[in-house]
Amino acid sequence: MIHFVGAGPGAPDLITVRGARLLAEADVIVYAGSLVNPALLDGRKEGCAVYDSAQMTLEEVLSVMVPAAQEGRLVVRLHTGDPCVYGAHREQMDALDAAGVPYEVCPGVSSFCGAAAALRAEYTLPGVSQTVILTRMEGRTPVPGREQIEALAAHGSSMVIFLSAGRLGELSRRLIAGGYAPDTPAAIVYKATWPDEKVIRTTVSGLAEAAAKEQVTKTALITVGGFLGASYERSKLYDPSFTTGFREGRA
Ligand code: SAH
What count of other Cβ atoms lies within 10 Å of the Cβ of residue 171? Predict the structure, then answer.
């Protein structure tokens, strides 16, 4: 059996209990060495084979995992954060389906959750935004035209931008062209939950300068929106006058 496991955003104790158990039992671990904290490998079984997928192609990853699984060994494919965002996960699952190799997926804490924790922020504030857009600027991977930053920025919602920390001048320009005011609050979270985590609070127009000052060019998320500001409405759910299925409201 092959287990795809979300490693979490960095801190080794932010993996799930299930993920940690699978890692401890694994005969083979293929981990994304570019972003997964290697401390997660410390508790592995003696004799466990370890591969760093940063130096491997999809075909090479499969050529390690498939024979091992067919021999009855427990394989863990360890992805950064959760495999469901920017994980190149689907192509692996499809190849395993085609080869008739069973697998399961164990979710992880995505870096956008780690970033919110570092910021002590809530993306979905009443009266501010009830939507979180997870996106990226195109790099060598294209982004569909209808998902260009300008088009998404037009919603004015909370935005989390992955894989784009190296081009913040362009990002600012496009966020503003899409409709965010230049002074909209923004934050750069570098290596959320790692020991060298940095939280840089700035504005949409200040992103490039703030990152240059702190020498951040990668492994960062850009968060944008009024959720980083001071004002919002309190929740209905915990309002004393509000009746829910669990609680009678008081006048
Ligand atoms: N599957 C991962 C994302 C992989 S894409 C997840 O769920 O988080 C890699 C990008 O994610 C990086 O370029 C960066 O933008 C972001 N990222 C991953 N880990 C991060 C962390 N600890 N802090 C900030 N950004 C991170």
Answer: 24
For a ligand 1 pocket test, name from 82, 111, 138 the mutation site with the most ligand atoms within 8 angstroms of its C-beta: 111
**What's the CA gap between 100 and 67, in Å, rounded?**
12
Per the CB < 8 A criterion, the answer to whether 22 and 76 are in contact is yes
Structural domains of the chain ordered from first start:
2-106 (3.40.1010.10), 111-228 (3.30.950.10)
Global pTM? 0.96
pLDDT tens, residue by residue, 228-245: 999 999 998 898 999 989
pLDDT digits (tens, 9 = 90+) for 75-102: 999 999 999 999 999 999 999 999 999 9
The per-residue pLDDT for range 1-44, each reduced to its tens digit, is 999 999 999 999 999 999 999 999 999 999 999 999 999 999 99
In angstroms, what is the span from residue 247 Cα to ligand 1's centroid? 39
219 CA to centre of ligand 1 in angstroms: 6
Rg, Å, the chain Cα set: 21
Protein residues whose CB sits closer than 6 Å to any atom of ligand 1: 9-10, 35, 79-82, 85-87, 110-111, 114-115, 162-163, 189, 191-194, 219-221
Residue 199's CB: how many other CB atoms inside 10 A? 16
Residue 251, pLDDT score: 79
